[in-house]
């Protein structure tokens, strides 16, 4: 299995912890629907739910690794990629050719999902390490994954990478090869930029965050720069000039990258405060990354720390604000809700992400975590310090969601949980059939708004009108434009919430909405739009494409250079 190199890095930095008392920048304060949440189990995912992305209003894709999954392709072989119908819970096999094990995913600006990287086990003649897989969502059950590594591939091996969609609708694939060998990034489609014509670009940040920098967090900020975080550190990264600007490190020695996995979220971007970006990183572990991970114990306590940083000059000067979840979690998932809150689900209270080694008391050949965290906790970023976390009314699950589990918001506003498979192959243990679970927040039991008239594309700063039907007592509405992201290993690539400027007509039947101001605030690509009542009840989130739906820019010279590199 994967092995981290042993070095002498990793002295715990005892930064002073702050208590998060400063007032929130997220304004105006919101109200939320109160009451009980419900939890239902509906079917299984057919392939283990390692990677999960909503692709249409009614479907999701699930990518696993090559293994003996129960879902079969037509020719009688096990599938490892599938499409899930969110209404019927039927799974349809998809046909990846290479091994998607620990790949990443981001949508391009034209709505095509790009899956990149993976594992070298060759099943069908294609090595997954340099795979680029394309999936253009459809409504009729005919779309499939296309890949052909002799025609298109990454310029270098990527296993456990992160990715992000940027302002021109391209994707940056960021990260290593599960070894020390490839601390670099590259663009798809490839660019001729900063002296690197189509080729990978070295990343000093990734080189300096070994030994725990896999699945780095990468987020596009409203000024077009990227926030990148791994291990214990974070930077602002300008890809146009290839410049890194260091940010303060995460306080109190907490590490948050695989296998010491935490999760991260870009908090809602709100016009009222000029879209000031604020990030929050939760969970992980204070375990040293300088130790051979095969000696890590499943009983080592996880971290309960959440660290929040406002990415303005003042916010950076003030440093990370520390808060604590009611329960420690390693391998959590942080999912944005349309009401502006964040649900923290999945994971364990002790141990770390799957690695072969010492693992007392746990089932599974690759599991190093114990004491599953069964109860989700919801976080209100606008709440008063000390009163932001709550699990009130939220039932506990009974299904452990440990290594290789995922979660996502659905268009209907529920939270879908999938995965957990701490084995190399599903035949080794049947403890984790990867049942699908759906959490319905309290808002789903209230009278809901609905709307019609969302255009197929929503361009920047352009107005469109929706005809809305609001519950009788509605005093006002806001509009949440959301990228539901691509989830794997607790990292939610491109997950985003942008509140759009909107105006309700006096008869409360017409809502005039203005598209996001710039492609830096919402990179061109797919989005789900929720109309949310002042009481915190969202409509169904219909799908649109922000921008024009055009394909990202193509530089044929850079593509030629990138495929001229002999594949690994
Ligand atoms: C990949 O592309 C090459 C070159 O066009 C072609 O010969 C080959 O058949 C393709 N492979 C697959 C699996 O489509
Ligand atoms: C990439 O990682 C794989 C799996 O660990 C390893 O076999 C391979 O040598 C690495 N390739 C490069 C070029 O570093
Ligand atoms: C959406 O949620 C509502 C309220 O929970 C439920 O009645 C409805 O069946 C759901 N629809 C879908 C498509 O999931
Ligand atoms: C989107 O762009 C990519 C990259 O150029 C291309 O491969 C893909 O076919 C495009 N998808 C659509 C729907 O045009």
Return the average pLDDT rounded to an integer: 91
Care to count the β-strands? 43
CATH architecture of the largest domain: 7 Propeller
By CATH, the topology of the largest domain is: Methylamine Dehydrogenase, Chain H
Which structural class do you get from the secondary structure elements?
A: mainly beta
Beta-strand residue fraction:
25-35%
Helix content: under 10%
Number of domains: 2
**Largest β-sheet summary:** 6 strands, antiparallel
What is the 3D form? Answer: globular
Number of helices: 3
Any idea what the CATH superfamily of the largest domain is called? Galactose oxidase/kelch, beta-propeller
Strand order of the largest sheet: 5-4-3-2-37-38
Organism: Mycena albidolilacea
InterPro entries: Gal_Oxase/kelch_b-propeller, Gal_Oxidase_central_sf, Glyoxal_oxidase_N, GO-like_E_set, Ig-like_fold, Ig_E-set
Protein name: Glyoxal oxidase N-terminus-domain-containing protein
Keywords: Signal
